[in-house]
User: What shape does this take?
Amino acid sequence: MIECNNGLFHLKNENLSCLLRVNRYGLLEQIHFGAPVDSEDVKALSCNPGLGWGESLLLNPADTASCPDAMALAWSGSGRGDFRESPVEFDSKSGDLSYVNHRVLEQQPVMESGLPMARGGETLEITMAQKGVKLYLYFTLFDTALTRRAVLVNEGEASLELHKLMSFCLDLPGEYVMTTFDGGWIAEMGKHTTPVGPARVVNESTTGASSNRHNPGFLLSEPDAGEDHGRVYGFNLIYSGNHYASAQRSLQGLTRVMQGISPANFTKNLAPGEKFETPEAVLCCSDEGFGGLSARMHRFVLDRIIPEYWREKERPVLYNSWEGCMFDFNQRKLLDLAKRARDLGCELFVLDDGWFGARDNDRAGLGDYNVNRKKLPEGLEGLSARLGKLGLDFGLWFEPESVNEDSDLYRTHPDWVLHNDGFSDITGRNQLLLDLTKLEVRDYIVENVTRILDSANISYVKWDMNRHSVALGVKAHECILGLYDVLRRIFEPRPHVLLESCSSGGNRFDLGMLCFGPQVWCSDNTDPIQRLTIQGNLSYLYPQSTFGAHVSAAPHAQTLRNTPLTTRGNVAFFGCLGYELDLKHLVSIEIQEIKAQIELYKKYRAVFQFGGFRRLKNGWQVSKDTTVIAGVFHGRMDAAPGYEQLRLKGLDKSKRYLFRTRPQKIRVGQFAGLLKHVAPVDLNPNGSVIRTADKHLGLEDGVELYHVTGAALMSGITLLPLFRGTGYDKNQRTQGDYGSNLYVIEEE
Ligand code: GLA
Assistant: This one.
């Protein structure tokens, strides 16, 4: 509901309130953003500058409260005495903008630039102006979030240079800590917290993409907020290019926060009559801690961002050929893998890189779309038909935005590439970027990708992008708009094609990409212990159905860590499950375990993918309807560990539940040398008896079964003890480092 009354605007529903007021100087004050309040509360909620602060500039010398520098504002500029960071900069005297009028719209207007947007939502449009410039601010209300964006129009007679235009700006009273999610390849989404003080804290990407260096999503929390208590704000941008966000506390104790396109390398020349639209930003708040905030963000992403077709559509268990084959495959090898994958329970076979042109390594072929007939004599059509006969769907990898210099495309159209003007080109993974601002380049991509998609029965696309470019310069934003145009033209007419975007793993994990495809490959690192960080931290802002999570080989290719297959599965369950390893080397006990994993996942797929996700002290929980599933994970084990509790959240205290451990086996090989401790035999740990036993036999790992109340589960039940050097017992979790368990809890 949006109420407008005498310069007071209240966007309100049962979860949040955004209260704005136009003051007598035409400035837009932010009275409140957070839990629902009443419009009548305005006086009590507003920041009143009273006699002002000593050195403030006053808009009216007779009114000591007329100091913009001390006001809590929802927008500002540099031209009227607010010396804090300005969300807008153009020409020399930007930011003298004052309120003109407003409108309430049933839903927000579609952006002419083609930027992706959240679906629906009642919208307040506030128009601000100064001579020759109009600024439209959009506030759109959703169930669990508010979105904001800005449109600046040059209404003057001369052209205007725009240097910076944020999507929103907001002043919040109080003290906050900023949490950002930063990293790099195979180390995405590290969580870092920085207290917001008088020095500005910035979260920015300048690589041309939203990047793995700094995810655009970030949080501001009260210093004592915790997982289940305290105030936490969450912000994100529906955009895949360079982004910028900052937070800074003023002397008056107001934290100014803003987010938008990064002003670095950004200049937009607006001819008279021309406009610039910012991406839409998402603002969310919870007084129930980080967990409460995540639940609201998840709801928003599922309901308003990912394509409607995929909203609650269960995703297939896939097999991906990359880690198992890399570039070295042919149809026979692929079909052998496919058959094995099918027998394990996989539903979709994804052929990764290497199926086209001279693509036998990453030095050649990118940009070309002719199927490599040496590897695939029957083409994609033949391969997909054979997969179909096996009962498998077919998915394919593309990397359409880049080109190798050693490709037919580059040899024919060297001018289609972004060149590093005046300097030599700098490649990354032997690639250059195509210039997506050119219509003929976009047409080439759309024509080729759609031709391939329509030529075979392809139900899934992995859309990769493996390099950044220094040659983007001021074209960065236009290139992202070009990408959106390409994605829209390919995928909107084919909503049934499951699009999983990727960028060397999670180098472009953002809400912009999620508007076109419901999943993102969040990291090339599938080591489950690293995934606890990556998936766990993604969960602050993104629901688990938005990320692919694969089981791969151990020791892991990116960390050399050796982890149990059970843990690899238990972690990958909390995402869209896939397998990515050479299946022909699996031994019987691994085959049994994977079959059991897939069977369980399929049974509870809706719970894993769409259930409410919660972070626990020692693991994760998902719950949907009458089922709760919890994973408990361990890193490096201490000697003689004590009792461990599992404490679930959000259950019905009065209900009874059946609590069961997912049965899993412990490989005997790892205990070979220890057998003499428990059995009167002296077996060679490297001998054939042990090796054979290891392939086929497993020891039972502590299984628990209780009929128990929700009250007890929420108070915390004590799990079976962990191994502590006193021998094997089947009523014990005998796991060592990187062990884990999965518990299925069902209402009785
Ligand atoms: C990137 C992706 C990988 C794989 C390779 C193929 O690194 O992140 O998953 O698709 O490209 O070249």
User: Anything to note?
Assistant: The mean pLDDT is 95.
